[in-house]
Amino acid sequence: MTQLSIITATFNNLELTKAYWESLINNQPSLPWEIIWIDDCSTDGTREWLKSIESENCRVILNTKNLGFSANNNLGAHHAKGEILCLLNNDIILITGWFEPMLRALSQNEAVGIVGNVQLRVDTQRVDHAGIWFDLVGLPNHAYQRRTADCIKGAGRHYSAVTAACWLIKKERFISCGGFDTVYRNGYEDIDLCLRLNKAGYQHWVA
């Protein structure tokens, strides 16, 4: 029985998508999983490649017009069979042990709305994301950005928001809050959803 639904939206950048897929296959989640690909009208061979790997647990949705990140992930969530959604961008490389700390954080605390993780830039190996906080005028900032990963200690901590490049959320929670607001086509949709869940009493965690 599928417990985890991975949702990945694509738009061109086929070589990045292939590298991401290889990293997922080599570092698979510990739960029974499926992946739902939503292609947003790629023109570089991505659609043909996706069809070549399509299977019962690797489903492909080919858009007839470009919808943007928010709508694509909302579409994937409605097609998901799993109780947990894992949103993954197609330009990330997953490493050994990426999934279990995130699952543990989501499973052990009902007050946690979304779980994100620490993400490093491939070119510098410095922090790109380790949680989002807001400054005194309300602008979002990335914690520890451009610092080395050894500055981050412990099992994780709470933040006001986390990036949707890699996160876990229960499907019921995502659907019940309305998913992403499609007014945000490609940016800030994740922060908006985090803030709406904050208002509903949830906190977010970076593993």
Task: Explain the overall architecture.
The protein has 207 residues and is of the alpha/beta class. Helices cover 28% and strands 25% of the residues. It is built from six helices and twelve strands. The strands form four sheets. Strands 3-2-1-4-11 form a five-stranded mixed beta sheet, with helices on both faces. A three-stranded mixed beta sheet has the order 5-12-10, sandwiched between helices.
Quick recap:
Helices cover 28% and strands 25% of the residues. The chain contains 6 helices and 12 strands.
Query: How many helices does DSSP assign?
Result: 6
Rg over CA atoms, rounded to whole Å, is 16 Å
* Element order: H for helix, E for strand: EHEHEHEHEEEEEEEHHE
Mean residue pLDDT:
96
Overall form: globular
Overall number of strands: 12
Query: Helix- and strand-based class?
Result: alpha/beta
Helical proportion? 25-40%
Largest β-sheet summary: 5 strands, mixed
Oligomer: single chain
Strand order of the largest sheet: 3-2-1-4-11
How far apart, in Å, are the first and last alpha carbons?
A: 26 Å
Instruction: Detail the poorly predicted runs.
Output: none
**Beta-strand content bin:** 25-35%
